[in-house]
Amino acid sequence: MLSIKNLCISKGGNKILENINLFLARNEKIGLVGVNGAGKSTLLKLIAGLEEQDLGTISLSGTFSYLSQEIHMEILESMKEELTIGEYLIIERGLNVEEWEINKLLNYMNMQDKNTDSLLSQLSGGQKIKVELIKILLERADLLILDEPTNFLDIPTAQWLMSFLVNYPKAVLVVSHDLRLMNKGISKIWYLNDIKHSVEVYKGNYDAFLKQIALKDELLVKTLKTQEKKVKRMFEYAKTLSSRGMTKEKMKGAKKLKQARKEKEKMINLSKELIKSKKMKISIPTPYHCSRNILEVEHIKKEYIKGIPVLKSVTFEMERGEKISIIGKNGAGKTTLLKILAGRMRQTKGKYKWGKGVVIGYYSQEYEDLDYEKTVLENISRLDWGDIDRRSFLGRFLITGDMVEQKIKTLSGGEKTRLALAKLFASRSNVLLLDEPTTYLDPDSQKILLSALKEYKGTVLIVSHQPDFVRELNMDKVLLMPEEKYAYFKEEYIERVGIL
């Protein structure tokens, strides 16, 4: 199905992949894993023919369908808003299917209130992504190449999608932070080792991979301890021989010393196997002081189409230091509300008022504040860094070296997320409006962000589909959508995070 030989690629002077050799058989289900920025998306783009390798060959037989990690940006360009879902998929995208097949998948994807006659203009960003997923699934390609397919999906839809992929009768190559949802169906793991710039192949599912990695490290530590003792004995013996008066023994000692140095070099090379990927070190600067009353929102209403309200009458208030979660299904208006409060969109009716001294930091899941045609440095040039050393600060978010000269469009989703977070936190905002900040972060990075937000002294209003993230952040209050109910946070609300 897929054969990769001696593949090499570099970006911005940095080595990404070196001498990669891989094989994917028909009907195989493979999970591609690795830390953010290791090159997972790059590898998928190379296979899909969207980027060109420096060296090596990629041979692909049969048909394939590719889901980009940037699909939430691409659909804005590809979808014509005046079309219905049916017209878009059957006429615009050329699907050879019946309408009932599309309606069936809309139902499975938790869009029971939509059908092929629904207008694209009435869909939220998350719902448009589901429509694009439906297109890919109904193409029934010989190979599905999927880059983070569960991003922006509610939990039931993510679970259904992974179940679909497990039972898909053809080959699947998937990158996902939710691989446990697909555990039963995965036959191999391709682990992209960012230290060696290689891809290691492990048989079995994701759980088996984690066990094999842990066992490998455990055996390596034992081997290193044994090797260390061996090298120490060799050096001591060589030293003893060299200290004796006889020329023959001195020569023997020199020979043993040479052997000892070779063994030490082996030990050093072996120890490199234990070097782990660098992790973010987020420390949010102390925010500017502001009034106790942060925000007053009164009866905000928003209509994209006259007579069809996305927000009906949202009313709530925030005080300094509070952490508040907006919980609701795709299309309930969560992102719309954040955009209005961030000043990126006007409400149809109602009003809101920020308190004195409030400095707003807005994290958009669409990276609205990043100019894709400019470099990293150009994107941060207008920031007031004050006494913050920008190079050092970016380094904490793993944005280092020549990466600062790369254009934003060449960065992976994880790299864009880290840059957007760096810009956000460097601003010393005392109010953070966060729209799905964990979407492109690997599990370790999510924990690091969580820890930083727990220590943050400002106010947080967050949208997240991650139940554990919301629980650990210790929310004070909740805004439930679409009921537009504002209340003190209770553990029972965790069940609704990502569910509806």
Mean pLDDT: 85
**Which shape, going by the Cα principal axes?**
globular
What is the third-level CATH name, the topology of the largest domain? Rossmann fold
**Poorly predicted tracts of residues:** none
In terms of DSSP E residues, the strand content is: 15-25%
What does the radius of gyration come to? 27 Å
* CATH architectural arrangement of the largest domain: 3-Layer(aba) Sandwich
Question: CATH superfamily of the largest domain, please?
Answer: P-loop containing nucleotide triphosphate hydrolases
Number of domains: 3
Main sheet record: 6 strands, mixed
Counted by DSSP, the helix tally is 14
Structural account:
By secondary structure, the protein is of the alpha/beta class. It has three domains: 2-209, Rossmann fold (3-Layer(aba) Sandwich); 225-274; 293-496, 3-Layer(aba) Sandwich (Rossmann fold). 35% of the residues lie in helices and 23% in strands. The chain has 14 helices and 18 strands. The chain has helices spanning 40-47, 71-78, 85-92, 99-108, 125-138, 155-167, 206-243, 247-271, 334-341, 376-380, 390-396, 413-426, 443-455, 467-472; strands at 2-11, 14-24, 29-33, 55-60, 64-67, 143-147, 171-175, 188-193, 198-203, 293-305, 308-319, 323-327, 349-354, 360-363, 431-435, 459-463, 477-480, 485-488. The protein is globular.
